[in-house]
Amino acid sequence: MTFGYAGPHDRGEGEAGVDESTAGLGDDPLAPGWVPPEIDTTKAHPARIYDCLLGGKDHFDVDRQAAEVVIKALPGARDMVRENRAFLGRAVRHLAESGITQFLDVGTGIPGPGNTGDVARAVHPDARVVYVDYDPVVAVHSRALLAGADPALTAIVVADVRDPLSILHHPAVHEVLDFDQPIAVLMVALLHFIKPEEDAHGIVTTFRTALPPGSAVVISHGTDGGDPETSAEARKGWDNATSQFTVRDRTDITALFDGLDLIPPGVVNVPLWRPDGPAREDWAAIWFDGGVGLKR
């Protein structure tokens, strides 16, 4: 898949880099031919750091440098993000198999294989999916995902989870999703970028309140793994990023599901959430907790 831009170290024949002849043409990041008029390559971005940790190619030197800070402090970081991505897939598949056909993926980041739409449509070919991210650069990548999709079933929205009503009231969201029918809201590897004063609990509550009965909320969140000193060193990788990393403990993560019924096994290390086979023996080395809650 060729995206709207590639990191400077990845551009080559046949790849689409930033085209200066189209830069700045209009302000709509979802318009055909739009590219970001400015890309600040001096500041890392969480989605691109995550892409780097996953082994992707859609990042810049500054993102790779940030990922190297994380890996130096926490050599298992790559395993952690891979296990988190696997949790996303299992959660979406479980909900799709349980009958949910609508998904609102908030903080989707740079899309790749095994994204929400891929998994949901393997179960329901007509599943409806809205991808939301606050970074217009991510929207450039996401256009490639949307290009082959039915616009009646897929939308990309540029909005910030810190303003949940801007998402819930967005016309494109309502063009694709029917709020009279169950919807799964995904906030996977997202809320640890919400500072304490930005009220992650209130954000989740706003989404939960807007959802009809039978809906679901999927959350995964970074922890300190019981080693706060190492965690603090690893989180320095986000010091020069557009959002910083805030760890929460399991009690606080579980509280994000207030008002929802947790699907067994509840909030656990993500490798332990309904694994497809035997869970990895070193599951405690994965510093992500995750769970799925249902609205009755």
UniProtKB/TrEMBL annotation:
Keywords: Methyltransferase, Transferase. InterPro entries: SAM-dependent_MTases_sf, SAM_dep_MeTrfase_SAV2177_type. GO terms for biological process: methylation. The keyword Transferase applies. Residues 1-33 are annotated as: Disordered. One of its GO terms (molecular function) is methyltransferase activity. This is SAM-dependent methyltransferase. It comes from Catenulispora yoronensis.
